Amino acid sequence: MDEAELMPGDVDLDVTHSAINYKDGLAITGERPVVRRFPMIPGVDLAGRVTRSTHPDFKPGDRVVATGCGVGESHFGGFAEKARLNGDWLTHLPDGLTAARAMTAGTAGLTAMFCLLALERHGLTPADGTAIVTGAAGGVGSFAVALLARSGWRVAAVTGRESEADYLRQLGASEILARDAFTTPGKLLQEQRFAAGVDMVGGVTLANLLAQTRCDGAIAACGNVGGMDLPTSVAPFILRGVSLLGVESVRPRIALRREAWGRLAADLDPALIDAMRETVPFDQALEKAKTIVRGAIRGRTVIEMPAAADS
Predict the structure, then answer these.
(1) For residue 254, is it within any domain?
(2) Does residue 286 share a domain with residue 227?
(3) Is the whole model's pTM more than 0.85, yes or no?
């Protein structure tokens, strides 16, 4: 492909970094129909330098990031050296973040921050009790553990990989819980254990989390790797006042994105971000993306483009 084949947009950029997300793995393997048109360049996250702009907020040379907004699904994404995007989907690279660190966060970190903001706006604080994170060794889960711990929460991290316990404690987890304890259907109301939670799994796991959430607590749900069904009842909601907070990360909502990026830059230790990242060259992107649907990726995998050498 060449630049003439890029899709419409008012900002052109040289892509310096992208990242591998679960959606990218689904798109490449065809496990689920996330791609809305063909051909498609995957990559729901990208960072780069503006080379041309007719958008009032951006000029050549600006460092920018983009996540979601249909990129890599209905609009050509970040697994390329060039991109042409709608400027309303872009955010200036926050002070304190390199492009590589921004892509280490990417959709995963942004989604985790959206979850934390949702819990905070619900009125929950670390004084209320323990926060639980499912899929804790994955991309969103890793950032959720780190962000909650940084905000003062005692974090219980759920994982199916015992070998990741030390990694999760390094991120700030106080307690490691086995995934199997949440995958078997249980009672609609169970022992009250958690004040808050971030769930990437859905299905039976989410039902069990709701059943174990304390009165007036809340679970922020942002994933469905365990299924789209939710086999629960109204009991947690009407007998304990539990709230289920839906979190999505696709719509532009630029004010919220700017707030979330600012918090990510301010709240996270750069060394901690680096500890979550594996960096691979562009020619390994497709094979690496296939591994994410098998749950075989720890933290985040960042793709470094040839243009990064000129950064």
Answers:
(1) no
(2) no
(3) yes
